[in-house]
Design brief:
The complex is a heterodimer of chains A (about 270) and B (about 350). Chain A is α/β, with parallel strands linked by helices and about 270 residues long. Chain A has a single domain, classed as 3-Layer(aba) Sandwich (Rossmann fold). In chain B, helix 13 crosses helix 14. Chain B is about 75% helix and about 0% strand. Chain B has about 350 residues and is mainly α. The longest helix of chain B has about 35 residues. The relative contact order of chain B is 0.17. Classes of the chains: A alpha/beta (about 270), B mainly alpha (about 350). The interface between A and B is large, with 38 and 38 residues.
Chain lengths: ~270, ~350
């Protein structure tokens, strides 16, 4: 069953077109990676999916209902978003921050219930953030903070999780930890995961489908066909303008960039 | 984490501090009074009891009025800081107070002198002035983006502009109107000590504080930014309009009662935040109570320090608040990664 359906999504910021007739669908339990150069509309797509941007017609349906049917609180029960670089103006503790997920979703009460508390503790447990639950988030490192916001998204208890470059400021170990966590959430809780990333090799290892966006409005949706498969070098060259070599090492597809492409190709190899 | 037990015990403690401050300040003044005499009632031995007159009719009404004003300004400060994500916000510094002041002045100038249940014509015009200025500040806040000094700078300009308009109106007004108008600009709690004025004002401010406390969790979410709050399910435009309207209303009440008193909305929320943390469910009611205590104290200093003359209370709050603001400004500039 497709949980997200995007049909003919076109979006622009005034003069600059960003997304052009984008069409793809996401199945329940998919791990989708969204890739593309800067300015290709990856973050815009996440903002459209989570209702932060609401054009007159978006062509997005979630669980078979069109986007415009959902109010902001209803949407927050379906989709949780982890944005880049979130900080508060004031020093809330980690536990208070995670608890904020429960306010609307849990029913707008002044004080949280026991159930809300249990959900928050569990979310912190899963993301390994409970150890600094009482610390203000302003005192945490980038990696720790990222995990706190993933915990907050978990506390929303949504079937769909969107993440905007969740590993951008993290060291290698923390990058792997975040992606391992996402894979566990998909495998154990059946969550649908959509992650924007710049790390082609990391997502080739974890994701099972890919959406490539180009800065001229082209797109390509591809599902992994088996172990050792993934994005081929020609496709990456046409979307990123970077030449590279590809290979399979012990069953893992890898891409090594070797230089900027000489001429920008405008046709999609393998994609319509 | 905030539990109901902590919530209520802190509120009781803050209320106790407020009542104690009020009691002490009632006993302090330029004229020495024997407290025992007060309990004889308004008449003693067939004569007017001056001790009763001074303490109850004069000092207590003034103290209650000061508490209402302080509660309103401190609460409005909390709310502006949260929703504009700016630790330097204050109704006076943002120009919201002078917007309300301009509204009251317009009422005086147009000669609207009616009043209904103690709410004079100045109140609605002050509210409109405060609301429009809040809207202006919200738009400026969006366009200045990440720099919190930009917003304050805009507020200072709005403030200076409105003050200039008020001075212009003062200069073209008839002589009998001038004194009423100058009163607003100085921040003074002297002329409004009437019971029928205090009761509706206190009721409006109490309503505002309770409603804003109920908006506490959305305000907590908004300190992470409008987009982030929306992704957690908050309807941001509806929240912003409601919260701004209530904050503008209580600011307007305070300005009608006392004119332009600055810095209360800046000092009190920051001090309370240090003691009780940043959670707005807690911050708003405690700031209201402590703001009341702070203005009661400031006004008592204003009454006593140059007795038998009196300072406008705005002078006292500015003398404390100015240096406080500068310290905050330096601290904020050092910590630009506050994420504003």
């Amino acid at each position: 069953m497709s949980i997200i359906e995007v049909h003919g999504l076109t979006f622009d910021y005034g003069q600059r077109p960003v997304l052009n007739k984008l069409t793809f669908s996401v199945q329940k339990g998919d791990f989708l990676a969204v890739l593309g150069p800067n300015g290709s509309g990856k973050t815009t797509l996440l903002h459209l999916l989570s209702g932060l941007l609401r054009p007159m017609y978006s062509g997005i349906s979630i669980e078979q209902s069109t986007m415009s049917c959902f109010s902001q609180p209803e949407l927050a029960r379906k989709i949780a978003l982890v944005r880049q670089d979130i900080t508060s103006a004031f020093g809330f503790t980690v536990r208070d921050t995670v608890m904020m997920a429960r306010y609307i979703v849990g029913g707008s009460k002044l004080f949280e219930t026991r159930q809300d508390r249990d959900i928050v503790e569990q979310a912190m447990e899963r993301t390994d953030t409970r150890q600094f639950a009482e610390r203000p988030i302003t005192t945490l490192s980038g990696g720790e903070r990222q995990r706190v916001f993933i915990a907050r998204a978990l506390a929303q208890q949504t079937p769909i999780l969107l993440l905007d470059e969740p590993t951008s400021h993290l060291d290698l170990k923390h990058q792997i930890e975040v992606f391992d966590l996402l894979r566990r959430l998909r495998n154990e809780e059946g969550k649908t995961i959509i992650v924007v990333s710049h790390d082609i090799n990391l997502v080739q290892h974890y994701a099972d489908c890919f959406l490539l966006l180009a800065d001229d409005g082209r797109f390509c949706y591809q599902r992994r066909s088996g172990a050792g498969s993934g994005l081929n070098a020609k496709l990456i060259e046409s979307f990123f303008g970077v030449r590279g070599v590809e290979g399979v090492i012990e069953g893992h597809k890898v891409f090594v960039p070797i230089g900027v492409a000489q001429t920008q190709t405008n046709q999609n190899p393998q994609c319509k | 984490m905030l539990t109901q037990k902590i919530f209520w015990s802190r509120i009781v403690a803050a209320a106790a501090i407020l009542l104690l401050t009020m009691a002490v300040c009632a006993a302090v003044g330029s004229v020495p009074v024997r407290l025992a005499d007060v309990f004889d009632g308004p008449m003693r031995n067939g004569q007017i009891n001056t001790a009763y007159e001074i303490i109850v009719t004069y000092r207590l009404t003034r103290i209650v009025l000061a508490a209402v004003i302080g509660a309103a300004l401190a609460t409005a400060g909390c709310v502006f800081q949260a929703i504009l994500r700016n630790p330097l916000a204050d109704p006076y510094l943002l120009g919201v107070s002078s917007g309300a002041g301009l509204g009251t002045m317009a009422a005086v100038l147009f000669g609207w002198t009616w009043s209904l249940w103690g709410i004079s014509a100045m109140m609605p015009t002050a509210f409109v002035g405060a609301l429009l200025t809040s809207g202006l500040v919200w738009l400026l806040g969006r366009s200045t983006g990440r720099h919190h000094t930009g917003l304050i700078l805009a507020g200072v300009v709005v403030n200076a502009f409105f003050s200039a308009v008020m001075m212009f109106l003062t200069s073209i007004a008839r002589a009998d109107q001038i004194q009423t108008m100058q009163f607003w600009m100085m921040g003074n709690i002297a002329a409004m000590q009437r019971f029928e004025v205090i009761v509706p004002a206190a009721a409006i401010v109490a309503f505002g504080v309770v409603r804003l406390t109920q908006w506490g969790p959305p305000l907590n979410m908004l300190t992470f930014g409008a987009d982030d709050a929306a992704s957690l399910g908050l309807s941001v435009p509806r929240t912003a309009v409601s919260v701004f309207a209530i904050a503008a209303l209580i600011t307007a009440v305070a300005v009608c009662l006392s004119g332009l008193i600055g810095f209360v909305g800046l000092i009190v929320p920051h001090a309370v935040r240090l003691a009780a943390g940043p959670d707005h469910r807690q911050l708003i009611p405690i700031s209201a109570l402590m703001g009341g205590a702070f203005v009661v104290l400031a006004d008592s200093v204003a009454r006593v320090v140059v007795a038998p003359a009196m300072l406008p209370v705005g002078v006292v709050t500015a003398l404390v608040g100015g240096p406080f603001f500068l310290i905050l400004l330096v601290r904020c500039r050092k910590r630009l990664n506050w994420g504003l």
